[in-house]
Amino acid sequence: MTMDHRTTFAGPSPVWHPFTQHALAPEPPLVLRGEGAWLTTATGERILDAISSWWVITHGHCHPRIVAAIRDQAGELDQVIFAGHTHLAAEALARRLVALAPAGLAHVFFSDSGSTAVEVALKMAVGYWRNIAEPRSRILALEHGYHGDTIGTMSAGARGIYNAAYEPLLFDVTRLPFPAQGREEATLTALEAACREAPCAALLVEPLILGAGGMLVYPAWVLAEMRSICDRHGVLLIADEVMTGFGRTGRLFACEHASVMPDILCCAKGLTGGALPLAVTLCRREIFDAHYSEDRRRTFFHSSSFTANPIACAAANANLDIWDEEPVAERIAALGALQEERLARFHDDARFASMRRLGTVAALDLAVDDPGYLAGIGLELAAFFRERGLLLRPLGNTIYVMPPYCVTAGDLDRVYAAIAAAAEHFGRG
Hints:
Elements lengths: L30 E5 L2 E4 L4 E4 L2 H4 L8 H11 L13 H13 L4 E7 L2 H18 L7 E4 L8 H6 L17 E3 L7 H14 L4 E4 L3 E2 L5 E2 L2 H14 L2 E5 L23 E4 L11 E6 H7 L18 H16 L2 H16 L8 E7 L2 E6 L10 H11 L2 E2 L6 E4 L7 H18 L3
Parallel strand pairs: 3-15, 5-6, 5-7, 7-10, 10-11
Antiparallel strand pairs: 1-2, 2-3, 4-12, 8-9, 11-12, 13-14, 14-16
Helix pairs in contact: 2-9, 3-9, 4-8, 6-7, 10-12, 11-12
Subunit structure: Homodimer.
GO cellular component, one term: cytoplasm
Catalytic activity: (8S)-8-amino-7-oxononanoate + S-adenosyl-L-methionine = S-adenosyl-4-methylsulfanyl-2-oxobutanoate + (7R,8S)-7,8-diammoniononanoate
């Protein structure tokens, strides 16, 4: 079927949308175009994308350099099996990522989403211990963590509404208390105790900020101490930088704030500037070497049909070109300052609590009688913002702002004016 902007569809849509309760959700807008920080619908409405379309868009929608790279690659090589073959875009990207990532990460495994990047990391860790004849399978993870929706990543994530229906499929992990302000030592004590109690394969963490868990922030020194404890007990550290990578926290990778080198690092979302699905799992040489053998049973058995898709890799290389050749770090610093200035207006507002910012990410909690992810206020807030031409998707009563780096001061003024209006409409205090 050939479609243009005038295309209409008869009858209800057969589409089943992610994280959507269709019995409660309004009809979604049909988006036709994206440019910079803005989306345009079929009715001509413009929507400010204040959450980077689920945290993926970094430099802006349809960035011309990324679009051109996709177009060029699509006309040259669209896809090739990556088992037993390679291609220029993947080879270049892997080398560039190793050069940019924290020192010591020497190998790059490609996949296609954040969930699979973390799933790969868990399998790498368990496979490493098995292949060096010291089997370990115990995984440690932070309370409130979220790592994806595959079985392994759901198992490692916080148990609750995201995965309650699938509990029989999940494996147990040891959970550490979140290092909330003033309670950081409790987390470190729990990690030390868990490592002493029994051999552990790996500690999986979102470095410095937990995304879907509520944009919860903890200090860099805690991450550094967790690294030290893992070192003392020979536990692998997996950094889930799916959200935090590519500048969200003010550095290219969040681990840089703590000068931490993880044993395994996961990236997705911003890897292609948000244009196409691509993910990587980087690991230390020792982990690769544990799978390197003439014994085929030690092969790392993981793949997807579109591993290292050439078009996606070309988009990622274009993204890295933008980082190399444009003042991206300056844009990120400026965006962080703009966020801080606008967040400050709510610091003495009793209708809000826990104002927090890390790099380009800002969040605050609206004071309501029924907080939490499933609270109806989340849907009401999303609809409230949507009526004002804003794409904001609160986590229950937690409102967060995570825009593309090209957003303007005027755009942010519009976002924060709507947040103030939401406080007038819904808040208490």
